[in-house]
Write a structure and sequence with these properties.
By secondary structure, the protein is mainly alpha-helical. The protein is built from six helices and three strands; from the N terminus they run H-H-H-H-H-H-E-E-E. The protein starts with a helix and ends with a strand.
């Protein structure tokens, strides 16, 4: 459940205050593509080296500004490394246990329900309250605002 949620493209947006992180990332990708295309224009003789250098520096500056905005929006959350990973499962496996616990705490609220009489032979009942786009955590915030999915599990 955790890895599936972490693999969704909007996962980073759950932890930001005022930035549309997926849009900022998409803009970074587009600017990098434009910067990479400049090399082809130079090789084809369509642009002079000085023009390519100037435009490349401008695009690099804009990319760096966007990446700074993304970093500020995400804070120092362990979710940052997972949100940026191409292979979420591999990043999760390499993350220390402490970081995994922090991510789980950010994504879901786990409530252990009383099992009742004779519970030694019964499985424990859990309630997981997950985050949706309506429930956001910002850096340093400990509680979700509102909304979210609820799931009852027996384990």
């Amino acid at each position: 459940m955790i890895l599936a949620r972490l693999s969704q493209p909007d996962v980073a947006a759950l932890f930001v205050e005022d930035e549309d992180v997926p849009a900022l990332r998409a803009e970074c990708v587009e600017l990098r593509t434009r910067r990479d295309d400049l090399a082809g224009l130079l090789a084809d003789g369509l642009l002079a080296a000085t023009v390519v250098r100037e435009r490349s520096q401008e695009l690099t500056r804009r990319i760096n500004d966007l990446e700074d905005r993304i970093s500020r929006a995400l804070g120092k959350s362990p979710i940052t490394a997972l949100a940026d990973a191409e292979e979420v499962a591999a990043a999760w496996q390499s993350m220390p246990l402490r970081g995994r616990k922090q991510v789980v705490a950010l994504l879901v609220t786990v409530t252990i329900l009383p099992a009742g009489r004779g519970s030694a032979s019964r499985p424990t009942k859990l309630t997981l309250s997950g985050r949706s786009k309506d429930r956001r955590y910002g850096p340093g915030r400990g509680k979700a605002e509102e909304g979210g999915a609820r799931s009852n599990l027996t384990h």
